[in-house]
């Protein structure tokens, strides 16, 4: 009997507007397959904006190129106003509503805090995603599982909401849980709710925020859903020029540094741990490996070859005037504090540049990617 086909997981990390880079990578990969070819991925795992990308293409697991084309079409036509209320009136109204809600008596329910109102994103996700297709793809056998990772403000744990084949069991660890659920817009809004920037999203009786906040084990959802291989499209910011050590860090620099840490540091640590585990398993006799609860998992880590900051500096003036004014009011320079700007610059020219960067990076590693996927 032939060996069972290995399950390949696509893992997309978070990064706000930077996630357009992932679209470019997926666009390059999709061109290596026929038009009606099913997806090379059996499992999709995403956090923050990566969860939005993962869900969009998982809906089209039976036709990979179609799913990627639709995802690219959405990103290529994206504007800040389709993600958050970016007009002067919209921002002012939202901030006044936040202020007045906190001046009311304690027994009045208060909305979750966020500098920006992301209700336009809710409308966009409802229009763009047909969540019923996820279950159809699962029943047809085209999709093994999908996971959207969030952070629970109630328990302080990472909660991965997953939907997939019945063979996938929920999991519970000291810092993370996996809960079976029907993925919808609320899960995506929760996973992408960057602290202080976007408000937390309520699911059931609890509030959830960006999944990167407490995510100490980003590979766990893929492995718990049975992945044998994991392709990671990370959004690490490759800072090419060191900062001036004599310059005192301002609010923008501190916030950008904090967000870079939240979105990227834990991935490197877990990849090191997985490599150590794989090496130990390979040293064991095959008979012993088959009796163990864990298995060796192959990974390929893809990340940008260039820094996001020069692109954010080049296109920061495309950001709506009201958003730039709000940042300056908070003591943040949209141009100089480009690490932070790179997360919320949902403007066409910047997004096109990121898609192109992802496409070129994937083409340069075509041989390595093809070998991994085939």
Automatic annotation (TrEMBL):
Pfam families according to UniProt: Patatin (PF01734)
Gene Ontology annotations of biological process type: lipid catabolic process
Active site: 48, 210
Annotated keywords: Hydrolase, Lipid degradation, Lipid metabolism
Chain positions of motif GXSXG: 46-50
Gene Ontology molecular function terms on file: hydrolase activity
Lineage: Bacteria, Pseudomonadati, Pseudomonadota, Gammaproteobacteria, Vibrionales
Name of this protein: PNPLA domain-containing protein
Residue ranges annotated for the PNPLA domain, each copy included: 10-223
Organism: Photobacterium galatheae
């Amino acid at each position: 009997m032939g060996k069972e086909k290995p399950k390949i997981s696509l893992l997309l990390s978070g990064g706000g507007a930077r996630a357009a880079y992932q679209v470019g990578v997926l666009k390059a990969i999709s061109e290596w397959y026929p038009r009606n070819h099913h997806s090379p991925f059996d499992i999709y795992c995403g956090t923050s904006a990566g969860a939005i990308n993962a869900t969009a293409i998982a809906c089209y697991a039976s036709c990979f190129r179609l799913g990627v084309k639709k995802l690219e079409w959405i990103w290529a036509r994206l504007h800040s106003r389709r993600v958050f209320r970016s007009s002067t009136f919209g921002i002012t109204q939202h901030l006044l509503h936040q202020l007045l809600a906190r001046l009311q008596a304690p027994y009045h329910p208060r909305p979750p805090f966020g500098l920006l109102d992301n209700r336009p994103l809710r409308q966009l996700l409802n229009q763009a995603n047909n969540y019923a297709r996820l279950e159809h793809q699962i029943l047809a056998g085209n999709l093994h599982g999908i996971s959207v990772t969030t952070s629970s403000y109630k328990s302080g744990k990472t909660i991965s909401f997953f939907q997939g084949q019945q063979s996938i069991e929920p999991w519970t660890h000291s810092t993370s849980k996996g809960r079976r659920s029907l993925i919808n817009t609320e899960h995506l809004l929760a996973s992408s709710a960057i602290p202080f920037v976007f408000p937390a999203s309520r699911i059931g009786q609890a509030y959830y925020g960006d999944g990167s906040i407490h995510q100490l084990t980003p590979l766990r959802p893929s492995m718990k859903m049975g992945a044998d291989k994991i392709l990671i499209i990370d959004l690490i910011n490759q800072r090419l020029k060191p900062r001036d050590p004599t310059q005192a860090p301002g609010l923008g620099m501190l916030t950008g540094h904090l967000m870079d840490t939240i979105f990227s540091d834990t991935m490197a640590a877990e990849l090191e741990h997985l490599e150590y585990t794989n090496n130990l398993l390979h040293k064991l006799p095959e008979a012993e490996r088959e009796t163990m609860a864990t298995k060796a998992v192959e990974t390929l880590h893809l990340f940008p070859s260039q820094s996001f900051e020069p692109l954010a500096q080049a296109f920061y003036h495309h950001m709506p005037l009201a958003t730039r004014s709000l940042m300056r009011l908070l003591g943040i320079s949209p141009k100089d504090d480009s690490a932070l700007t790179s997360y919320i610059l949902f403007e066409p020219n910047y997004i096109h540049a990121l898609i192109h960067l992802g496409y070129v990076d994937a083409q340069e590693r075509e041989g390595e990617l093809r070998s991994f996927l085939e």
